[in-house]
TrEMBL record:
Gene3D superfamilies in UniProt: Nucleic acid-binding proteins
Region named Disordered: 550-617
Superkingdom, taxonomy of origin: Bacteria
A single MF term (Gene Ontology): structural constituent of ribosome
Organism the protein comes from: Salmonirosea aquatica
GO cellular component: cytosolic small ribosomal subunit
Protein name, entry field: Small ribosomal subunit protein bS1
């Protein structure tokens, strides 16, 4: 008989309910609201390009997984956490949201960018609110230091490190210091910080205390913080004062470093104080007695002193006998020579020499010195009269030219005058510059010596015999010679005769036979109308030559006139002509006499000018 199979009946399934609108439709409105609230609390809104805080939920060898409350976690490279070697799960850090979802649906985060943005926000806040920040000196750079502020490199200028100049920046590398932001350049991402401003605030109270108690004549202790060509700046404890180079020592110095050094402590006295400008003038030499007050009694006029040349000027040089005691050596007291020259030709700075005191005023603290007094005055030499006896010959250097002559230096301190008329026997020299130049050597002969008045008259033409003694027989009146026209004036012409001698002629006496006038440089035959050895003058005529006349038959007669006789008017005119000679000759003689008178007047003027020149010398 077949066994009866047991069957288990399944409960009936409500298919109508399963085919309804879908999953979750069985919640009531209250349940749905409660569940939505629970879901929203697990998520937070995240915006791109902003900094948020995230919790570390995982750490691997290469990555750090962060939960920022978004629908997915973010992954950041572990290289960006090198500054946090002890990072562990559960720690919170700031990260920057670069992208909510990349191509793989991953949340992209960056801790490096978050640090930069946070650092700039902190720097900006410190700048606006004048806050103090901690900084670490990373390295030295040109002109200052590079410091790390919140991970940003900032520049600390050398002038902003301390109130006193810093000469060695390397000592600050690796150290920490407090700074304040003084400038931000967002365009170039540059930050400038200062440590000096913090120190200045501490010193302000100390500075004000010093200024309130400052008085002239007060002696203070200071530290030399800087030196320049014109002086040194002294730090008096928060207040700087200027120690001018002239107030460092009673003697002359070229630079403060000759007596002072940086960071040296020294006592100074307050010379002046400007409260408004807060300028303090200091002195160092005033703490010592003035050297003039302790000057030896042996220092008298005529005494010899030794010293060092400290300055050379156009008018002389200053000799330092001791620090603070100087004397002036005028250029006229450097040499017996009468020709003033540049003092630099005699002396140089730092030369050590001996001098004679000429004047001394202890009250005014002035002294004049002389060098030439160490040697004998050449005008007082015993052998002077024998050495420069009248007629003796010498060679000297032309030192000066004047309208009336030239001065020659025969030796140092001995000068002589050569008058322009004593330069040449034959040539008429209007100015010595036509004959010689300054600095040339010239042979002379002594004409006159007056040692008492320091005057020496010299001559150059006297080295040769007077050629006019010979010319008197060569250029006799009536003789004819070949001449060269040198120049023509308004009334007279100058001609050159043989032997280089010059003669004159009126313009009408040089006219040619055809009535034309000769040109300069042209040669003419001329007759001597007059010869004067005393005046060194020869009067010529070319007209007489071609007219065929002679001087003798035209010479004026000096015999007494005969008694008047009746004669026709025509005869009287002819008699006058034969008695007084050629009117041309008389006219030339008249002009000659006028010319001689002018020369005498000119000679008087020259003598007066010479006298004034010698008095000036």
């Amino acid at each position: 008989m077949a066994k009866e199979k047991k069957s288990h009946a399944m409960p009936d399934f409500d298919w109508d309910t399963a085919d309804d609108k879908g999953f979750g439709t069985g919640y009531t409105a209250a349940d749905r609201a409660r569940m939505e609230q629970m879901y929203e609390t697990t998520l937070s809104p995240v915006q791109e390009k902003e900094v948020v805080r995230g919790a570390v939920v995982g750490i691997t060898d290469r990555e750090v997984i962060l939960n920022i409350g978004f629908k997915s976690d973010g992954i950041v490279s572990s290289n960006e956490f090198r500054d946090l070697p002890n990072l562990k799960i559960g720690d919170e850090v700031e990260v920057y949201v670069e992208n909510q979802e990349d191509a793989q649906g991953q949340l992209v985060l960056s801790r490096k960018k978050a640090k930069v943005i946070t650092a700039w926000d902190n720097i900006q806040k410190s700048f606006e609110e004048d806050l103090v920040m901690d900084a670490t000196v990373k390295r030295r750079t040109k002109g200052g230091l590079i410091v790390d502020v919140y991970g940003i490199e900032a520049f600390l200028p050398g002038s902003q490190i301390d109130v006193k100049p810093i000469r060695d920046f390397d000592v600050f590398v690796g150290k920490r210091m407090e700074v304040k932001v003084v400038k931000i350049n967002h365009a170039n991402d540059n930050v400038v910080v200062s440590h000096k401003v913090l120190i200045e605030k501490d010193l302000e109270a100390q500075r004000q205390l010093i200024l309130n108690n400052l008085e002239k004549g007060q002696v203070l202790e200071g530290v030399i913080k800087n030196m320049t060509n014109f002086g040194a700046f002294i730090d008096l404890g928060g207040v700087d004062g200027l120690l001018h180079i002239t107030d460092i020592s009673w003697g002359r110095i070229g630079h403060p470093s000759e007596l002072l050094s940086l960071d040296q402590k020294t006592n100074v006295v307050v010379l002046d104080f400007d409260e408004e400008k807060k300028r303090i003038s200091l002195g160092l030499k005033q703490l010592q007695a003035h050297p003039w007050d302790s000057l030896s009694e042996d220092m008298v006029v005529g005494a010899k002193v030794k010293g060092r040349i400290v300055n050379v000027a156009d008018y002389g040089a200053f000799l330092e006998i001791m620090p603070g005691v100087e004397g002036l050596i005028h250029v006229s007291e450097m040499s017996w020579s009468q020709h003033l020259r540049n003092p630099q030709e005699f002396l140089s700075v730092n030369d050590e020499l001996e001098a004679v005191i000429l004047t001394l005023d202890r009250q005014e603290r002035k002294m004049s010195l002389g060098i030439k007094q160490l040697t004998e005055d050449p005008w007082t030499q015993a052998e002077l009269k024998d050495k420069y006896a009248i007629g003796s010959r010498h060679t000297g250097i032309v030192r000066n030219l004047t309208n009336f002559g030239l001065f020659i230096e025969l030796e140092e301190g001995i000068d002589g005058l050569v008058h322009v008329s004593d330069l040449s026997w034959t040539k008429k020299i209007k100015h010595p510059s036509d004959f010689i130049k300054v600095g040339d050597n010239l042979d002379v002969v002594v004409l006159e010596l007056d040692a008492d008045n320091r005057r020496l008259a010299l001559g150059h033409k006297q080295l040769e015999e007077n050629p006019w003694d010979t010319f008197e027989s060569i250029f006799e009146v009536g003789s004819v010679h070949r001449c060269t026209l040198l120049s023509k004036g308004d009334k007279f012409a100058t001609l050159e005769l043989p032997y280089g001698i010059e003669g004159i002629a009126t313009l009408k006496n040089i006219a040619k036979e055809d009535g034309s006038m000769p040109e300069t440089g042209e040669s003419l035959d001329c007759m001597v109308l007059e010869f004067s050895k005393e005046e060194k003058k020869i009067v010529l005529s070319h007209t007489k030559v071609w007219q065929g006349g002679t001087v003798e038959e035209k010479a004026p007669k000096r015999s007494s006139p005969k008694p008047a006789e009746s004669a026709p008017a025509k005869d009287t005119k002819e008699g006058d002509k034969s008695t007084f000679g050629d009117l041309d000759v008389l006219s030339a003689l008249k002009e000659q006499m006028e010319d001689t008178e002018k020369k005498e007047k000119k000679s008087a003027k020259e003598e007066k000018a010479e006298k004034e020149q010698k008095e000036a010398e």
